[in-house]
């Protein structure tokens, strides 16, 4: 056969094979394992292969099984039986309750039940022959430990990881069906899933399949009643707040509003509850118009005489009637504002959205969200006072650890959490923790949102770092503070890493900026020292914080790449929390709350700028600071901060007769000094300038003597 004909024949065979392969497309690749055997050519097969179970380090042959791994085999079998009964090919389980908040009651931990991941963020998707969990960088290490090998770990944001709908399109046929509970998914998310899955059907299934199979060991719902947050703490009556809200609605293009976020209901009516752990809220909805003010809540939660007097003028309806009664409530409205997802606020569920007539739907962020974020004078001063008391409690516990751990007294992660609860409870109007304490020693500290358990509880020693992230709830404010500690002699590498994180923390805290600056854009200041060393961290740098409310409050989010950017306003409170995490070794995070305040200058721009005021008043870990790495401005900021800490926290400790804590505080807040022989105040940059000047001088002298 001539060579030319042989080449043509081979090309034809190749093209025929290629066509056959490409026509099989994604339908032929129905399971993650199929990707392993798929050819790497063909127009529709050139995509990146999705992650598989076999790629997980903890699921490889011979891998050690973590003690906190959850066996989900029986649960998945039970769920798939229900999926068959309802003719469902894939079922989506979110982390949310019906209010789309970040924190939910244990009774609503459906996603944790089905997959074992206990972190606050994650979505599980179960098909007939595969199961996958999507979560963010805070939980990558935790998920690897807690998920058994029934589960694919999808690391959100990493290269080659498909989103939920892309993966479902890979593993399902076009005539199959995906379902979820419409009360547990926000409207914006539901609409996106529905669009991206097409032509695969996405069905709202009123029967929650997890509720059907979770018949034993499910935590009960809370039965404690709600309570009033009085005017000396709230600073404004609920009647005045409602008047302001009603005046705002026409500006938003609506004459009615549904309120589904628990912290918004709590703030608007000056009521609180205990229905969600660590968040002082009760399960409730509201409907507000110019003539209607309706609260949907369990009767037993608001039935006390004091509460009934407080709520005079508010129509009260049973909690579980909200969605059913929305169509009638909306009859008198021209346009109903339905809260959309916005930063940390999940927005109204798809079930709520669907209950409003289509011609009356206005989907946009809740105006209550913005009203709540800007603290009034009473709230702002309350936040300052709460953080002062909280600093006393935290410093007291740390001083006790500093005293006892080097002597060999046993402290473990769970003990620290328990002691913090006890010491915070000694402070006035404390109402417990604002979130579950993150107390991680050594490798556990590298798990960003680590939660100690009996299986993982580590004894705190003197060789590694201890990351402590905790907070308290008080009638006058909410706190959130992280400090990283060392109870022995740190290594040079530990000191360098800590100092890099501290530098970023300080640079953000001492920023002065135009009032039009967007929150996400200041993130780079906190990361720059780490970037300079080729390092980073997989979480945002800052979040808003509520007043006796949510630990993560919209709208403030300081995070590079954020899809939503907002400006700062006076009396916004938010966190400054850069970190560094070395997997298997240690974690570092330094977090302080900052308050946005105006600053003035005697220039042509006298009122153009904001700056931040320190709210958290807890010393940094002195032995982990390499002062020679700091600039003059950073050193000056720390020393001024320490003066403030001594003045305020020291005085409060003296008032409370906390001698041990006071002595520790004084020892930790001595001024930072550059070591001799370097003169105080000469920064590294200045030293480099002087080296350059002397070099130029010697060169000039050489030229003079050589040529003249």
Automatic annotation (TrEMBL):
Q: Name one Pfam family in it.
A: Peptidase_M24
Enumerate the UniProt keywords alphabetically: Hydrolase, Metal-binding, Signal
Residues in domain Peptidase M24?
Answer: 386-596
Q: Which InterPro entries match?
A: Creatin/AminoP/Spt16_N, Creatinase/aminopeptidase-like, Creatinase_N, Pept_M24, Pept_M24B, Peptidase_M24_C, X-Pro_aminopeptidase_P
Q: Which SUPFAM superfamilies match?
A: Creatinase/aminopeptidase (SSF55920), Creatinase/prolidase N-terminal domain (SSF53092)
Secretion signal, residue range per the UniProt entry: 1-24
What residue stretches are annotated with the Peptidase M24 C-terminal domain?
Answer: 609-672
Please list the residue ranges annotated as the Creatinase N-terminal domain.
76-205
Q: Which domain of life is it from?
A: Eukaryota
Report the protein name in the record. Answer: Xaa-Pro aminopeptidase
Originating organism: Daphnia magna
